[in-house]
Design brief:
The chain is α/β, with parallel strands linked by helices. The chain has 14 helices and 17 strands. Strand 16 and strand 17 form a beta hairpin. It starts with a strand and ends with a helix. Bound molecules: adenosine-5'-diphosphate (ADP) and aspartyl phosphate (PHD).
Amino acid sequence: MKVAKFGGSSVANATQIKKVCDIIKSDDSRKFVVVSAPGKRNKEDIKVTDLLIELGDTYASGKAYESVFEKIVKRYADIIEELDLPKSLLDEITDSTKKTLESDEPDEIKFDAVKASGEDSSARIVSAYLNKIGIQATYINPKEAGMIVSNQPGNAQILPESFPEINKLRDREGVLVIPGFFGYTANDKLMTFSRGGSDITGSIIAAGVKAELYENFTDVDSVFSVNPNIVENPKEITVLTYKEMRELSYAGFSVFHDEALIPAFQEKIPVCIKNTNNPSAPGTMIVAEKEQNGNCVVGIASDTDFCSLYVEKYLMNREVGFGRKLLQILEDEHVSFEHVPSGIDDMSVIIRNSEFTPEKETRVVERIQQELQVNTLKIRRNLAMIMVVGEGMKSTIGIISKATNAFAEANVNIEMVNQGSSEVSIMFGIEEEGLERSIRSLYKAFFG
Ligand SMILES: Nc1ncnc2c1ncn2[C@@H]1O[C@H](COP(=O)(O)OP(=O)(O)O)[C@@H](O)[C@H]1O
Ligand SMILES: N[C@@H](CC(=O)OP(=O)(O)O)C(=O)O
């Protein structure tokens, strides 16, 4: 039995949904189908999830929300009409979205329910269309599927007790169509995962039903060795390990959510990234282990919007507990950090800009100065992180020198370097301004 997840681009309009249903029809083992909300139909379009977020915000602020509501309804209306599905389905979706919007739930809970209604509507539509073309299919709500999550709006985590419940889905008849992106708390409150979280649903279902394969259908033939929006026609990756993919998606390969590998990895379920628009292409396989042959670097990922908090203190190496005290100040402000490169007398903490608001910065700086008596304290914003990834790097000499040469050729100054202890990745911090030319130069050095 396989789990097939279809992303927003695969259900963006009726033509795409027909392709999705053909893919399901072409293989009887595709029993579990997870869908996202309709995504962008072209570059300038807006994802339904983004419209729903706008709807929730507008409603909460007491402003007129009707025009954005109409835009959302129009997206479903066009799809339902073109698929020749009954008008009652559109009424059902419209009524349920309106009811969610007008519910008495606290704003935070309501926002998640409004946001998730895009996935819910997609699943109802796909299931109805499958039945129309003669495939027995049932819409399954995540509550019915047994997806119990933590009480963290917008950032829920699956709870372990879900898996035995999900396993029972194996006994159900026909194709089961499950909306991605959300689950329910033990108190029956709907909570969404973080953005892009339908990939997580697919992986949870795959782990729960112990699927033979988790197929993740998107709009590219494979995972490329570098973001195709930066380098034209980059090299395709045929096989990746879980570890490599986790590092790459964490560091910016938005094609697959970085948290989504964990459930599949725990049950050792292979993942295949495939293209809805070209399903016969083999795609990229993500597996536990692979043979090391060819290039030791598999991919180069990058992300922007980081800042660094740099502290220097003479004899820091001798001061027991310095690192803990610094990180404690960040913990007290609920700031999570990404990397901590350090020297003898200095330490940097790399944080996402969104985590480190100006208000938090003021409080953190004040406390560091008062409590840690550092000699230097510097905050730098607008940093980009580049991650060079590959399991084969640990047994290969000269990777860092090849990379630093590539930065030099791109005339970009490296602000920091951090090699993860697993030696699967090397991280370089640079100013955002030099990002694209660095990536092109690194790509040329490792894949050119
Ligand atoms: N290294 C990469 N390989 C493939 N695609 C990538 C990579 N980095 C970024 N992307 C982008 O990810 C997109 C697919 O992810 P996403 O938009 O989330 O799809 P979906 O709509 O299927 O959820 C691709 O269209 C591509 O622009
Ligand atoms: N629709 C949600 C969840 C998701 O996974 O979407 P997509 O498959 O389009 O990345 C979002 O936009 O965050």
